[in-house]
Amino acid sequence: MSNKLQFRHELKFFINYHQYLVLRQRLQSLIDTDQHANESGEYHIRSLYFDDINNSALADKLGGLRERAKYRIRIYNIQDNIIHFEKKIKMDDYIAKIKEPLTRQMYDEIMAGNYEVLNVPDSPLFMELYNQMRHNLLRPKVIVDYVREPYVCHNGNVRITFDKELRTGLHSTDIFDKDLHPIRAIDENFIIFEVKFDEYIPEYIKIALQLEGLNRQSASKYVICRKFLKTNTWEDY
């Protein structure tokens, strides 16, 4: 599986609403809105994050390990036409992502505890998940919910996103639950600003963003949302 990985740079920042308005105004005149966004320039993301019996993904992140991974099921606009099981791999400031499509029936089977649907020898990711669920008790942990405003630039394959209204599903783990009312996970004045790129950021985008003036932070949405469920002091974020 590793020989297919394409690692990219990932930079994350917490910004306030005023900074968001300034950055958005600059970007809108320079690069394009992602084609998947709606007429408001946004789409909704809901992810279900998994962790094992040792909470390895949480512990590795809080421990600052250079190499770590997270598993999640992701949907868009609370629809079931596109469902992916993803593995996000982090290595220092670089990320890579592997994903496989799920059907709604497969999702329902996984949530019912029937992990045999992942026993697919032709899919290395599904087999990895299957073994993780059987041997390490990988299980659903928390729903992460937010609105994304995405921009793209083909030069350098740059992707810039504003993630707003970050919410946690608390103890609920069904991303299709119509009665789910996730609660805010960070102050409403804050937005997570992310910049992803392959080898370089074009100079005109660098000048517009002035990244060196922003407060770069470790902004793990999974960890932020998991803190609402913490039962041990080591889980503090």
Automatic annotation (TrEMBL):
<dbReference type="InterPro" id="IPR042267">
    <property type="entry name" value="VTC_sf"/>
</dbReference>
<dbReference type="Pfam" id="PF09359">
    <property type="entry name" value="VTC"/>
</dbReference>
<feature type="domain" description="VTC">
    <location>
        <begin position="7"/>
        <end position="229"/>
    </location>
</feature>
<protein>
    <submittedName>
        <fullName>Molecular chaperone</fullName>
    </submittedName>
</protein>
<dbReference type="InterPro" id="IPR018966">
    <property type="entry name" value="VTC_domain"/>
</dbReference>
